[in-house]
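Query structure, 499 tokens:
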């Protein structure tokens, strides 16, 4: 049976054209700032897959894409959107798509947007059917999902059907994107004669014209950093906000509205509650137990920024080694946490059996998980974290690692463990991050503290160049650069597959 009323309800542009924007919940709630993302170049015959966590803005991205297409003159009736959270089976999805195909037989090009497609078992079989019947030759299909493992493993069963080269990530906003897109609004909230406001206003055009890539030489990176050095105070202020909100657009807007318009320097408890409910809901759909999920989250939190073996972890939480790895993988594939492997320079391969580090993808994830584990409201968690220099430094370290991932990763082809690791050896030497750029290794050490020096680096033979990310200091000689972390992240570019 086809849920015609449901389909029509989900596609209001069929009857109201571009006017749907005024009433769409996703687009209308994207305020006070509508955060722009990189636009995917959609081509007829292509099947596109967009992976990202819940609340990151995937649905809003699709609705905005539909708005843009209508503005370009694409017929509104040629576009189908289905939120598959409302469907219970592949049969329902098939019937809805077939209903749309019957309505659009005369259209030379159609667009099919399948949101949260991993809610449907064997979804790939429906796309395979469409491809094998030639339907996709006149169609553009974009599918999104919050479960990376379901998208990846099932998507791999579509070889030669237009998926290759069309997979993208949508992750929390990087600090650079946060700065470039929030600054104008913050400026408008400050008094006109305020000197800080005027400096903040000048920051955006300067930052727009410069960025860094880790393939650059150290001297080139230092030269780019010098361009925004006069705005260190402003970037430090914005980084403080980012360490509270993270990069989820809805959370950023919630905090900015509270802070600047309502005079409340806080994030409401409901924000973290919604996030945790989403996490637990996804784990339950994956047939994972809440009690074990809670144990894993607590274990990550207790050891945050430290290295440890999974066998030791499984022993401490009294679970089997297989169960421990299974839950960690699902947390990673749901974009909650990620595992950083140590690197073996002799074997030129990560130490899969060595000690690992586990970080959360985003500061808001850290705050929400800690609130969930302790029962304390998220605003109290954030305030205590701000006052704990050691803990704040660990959160910054996680932010840096997640940005380094976004800088280079490409779905399926270039995952984190192929280019980003950390390092330790028996002599006590350790490096927070080791990045591989072609055949060159770059060591990165995070020292979010008042004073740092080149002595913080313990030389590792294969690594020839080092960056120390400080809180305030800048400098370095020869093959070492000391750079404030906020200046570094404000200029770090993203891979072409991060929208």
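Result returned for the query:
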């Amino acid at each position: 049976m086809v849920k015609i009323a449901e389909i029509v309800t989900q596609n209001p542009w069929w009857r109201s054209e571009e006017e749907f924007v005024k009433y769409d919940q996703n687009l209308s709630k994207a305020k006070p700032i509508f955060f722009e993302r990189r636009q995917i170049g959609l081509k007829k015959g292509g099947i596109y897959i967009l992976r990202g966590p819940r609340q990151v803005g995937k649905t809003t991205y699709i609705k905005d894409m539909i708005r843009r297409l209508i503005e370009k003159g694409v017929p509104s009736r040629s576009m189908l959107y289905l939120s598959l959270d409302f469907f219970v089976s592949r049969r329902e999805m098939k019937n809805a798509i077939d209903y749309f195909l019957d309505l659009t037989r005369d259209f030379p090009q159609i667009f099919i947007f399948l949101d949260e497609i991993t809610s449907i078992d064997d979804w790939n079989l429906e796309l395979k059917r469409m491809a094998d019947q030639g339907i996709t030759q006149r169609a553009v299909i974009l599918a999104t999902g919050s479960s990376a493992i379901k998208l990846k493993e099932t998507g791999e069963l579509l070889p030669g059907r237009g998926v290759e080269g069309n997979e993208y990530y949508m992750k929390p906003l990087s600090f650079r994107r946060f700065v470039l897109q929030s600054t104008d609004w913050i400026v408008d909230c400050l008094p006109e004669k305020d000197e800080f406001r005027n400096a903040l206003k000048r920051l955006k055009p300067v930052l727009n014209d410069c960025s860094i890539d880790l393939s650059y030489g150290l001297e080139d990176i230092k030269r780019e950093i010098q361009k925004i050095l006069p705005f260190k105070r402003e970037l430090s202020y914005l980084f403080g906000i980012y360490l509270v909100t993270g990069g989820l657009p809805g959370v950023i807007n919630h905090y900015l509205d509270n802070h600047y318009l309502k005079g409340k320097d806080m994030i409401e408890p409901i924000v973290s509650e919604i996030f945790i409910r989403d996490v637990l809901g996804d784990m339950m759909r994956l047939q994972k137990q809440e009690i074990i999920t809670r144990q894993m989250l607590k274990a990550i939190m207790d050891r945050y920024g430290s290295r440890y073996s999974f066998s030791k972890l499984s022993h401490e939480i009294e679970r089997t080694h297989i169960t421990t790895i299974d839950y960690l993988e699902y947390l990673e594939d749901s974009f909650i946490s990620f595992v950083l492997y140590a690197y073996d320079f002799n074997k030129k391969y990560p130490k899969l059996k060595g000690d690992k580090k586990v970080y959360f993808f985003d500061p808001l994830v850290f705050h929400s998980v800690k609130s969930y584990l302790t029962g304390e409201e998220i605003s109290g968690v954030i305030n205590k974290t701000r006052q704990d220099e050691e803990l704040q430094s660990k959160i910054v370290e996680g932010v840096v690692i997640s940005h380094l991932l976004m800088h280079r990763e490409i779905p399926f082809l270039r995952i984190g463990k192929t280019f980003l690791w950390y390092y330790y050896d028996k002599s006590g030497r350790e490096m927070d991050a080791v990045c591989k750029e072609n055949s060159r290794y770059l060591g990165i050490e995070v020292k979010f503290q008042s004073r740092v020096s080149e002595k913080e680096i313990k030389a590792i033979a294969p690594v020839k160049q080092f960056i120390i990310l400080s809180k305030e200091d800048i400098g370095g000689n020869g093959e070492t650069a000391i750079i404030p972390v906020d200046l570094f992240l404000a200029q770090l570019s993203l891979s072409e597959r991060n929208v």
